[in-house]
From TrEMBL:
Belongs to the MIX23 family. Signal peptide: none annotated. InterPro entries: MIX23 (IPR019171). Pfam families: MIX23. GO terms for cellular component: mitochondrial intermembrane space. PANTHER family: COILED-COIL DOMAIN-CONTAINING PROTEIN 58, PROTEIN MIX23. This is Protein MIX23. It comes from Otolemur garnettii.
Length: 144
């Protein structure tokens, strides 16, 4: 499993972005996955579509939960860093290095928060496609 780092530098932001791309692979390929695994009505007897849809459902749930945890964890870590830097900045108003570091962390925090919005769009799109193809084959549990 890939574990993201939420460290200070821009390289970490690039690796975080790459990690999210890898973690979103299932969502990026959902249409292809459904087209190759869930049969059309004429081929319905040859494949167990309910089992295929159930497995895809579980994979999507796990992927979405995992990405949500990663993004929220990094937001929490970065928020703590921003808070600490703000407190230090109040004590040392003349420290330009501190100000620069604070601005960098604030920018990173805003970017990570925007990733939550991207995540919502990606998830909604995947569930829409999933439901269009799998609704007659598989009913997700009510508690989710």
């Amino acid at each position: 499993k890939l574990i993201p780092t939420c460290s200070v530098n821009m390289e970490a932001m690039k690796s975080f972005d790459e990690l999210l791309k890898v973690m979103r692979t299932i969502d990026d390929r959902i249409v292809h996955e459904l087209n190759t695994t869930v049969p059309t009505a004429s081929f319905a007897g040859k494949i167990d579509a309910s089992q295929t849809c159930k497995q895809l459902y579980e994979s999507l749930m796990a992927a979405h939960a995992s990405r949500d945890r990663v993004i929220k964890s990094c937001i929490a870590q970065t928020s703590a860093v921003v808070k600490t830097l703000r407190e230090e900045r109040e004590k040392n108003l003349d420290d330009l290095t501190l100000l620069k570091q604070l601005r960098k962390e604030q920018t990173k925090l805003k970017w990570m928060q925007s990733e939550l919005n991207v995540e919502e769009v990606v998830n909604d799109r995947s569930w829409k496609v999933f439901n269009e193809r799998c609704r007659i084959h598989f009913k997700p549990p009510k508690n989710e």
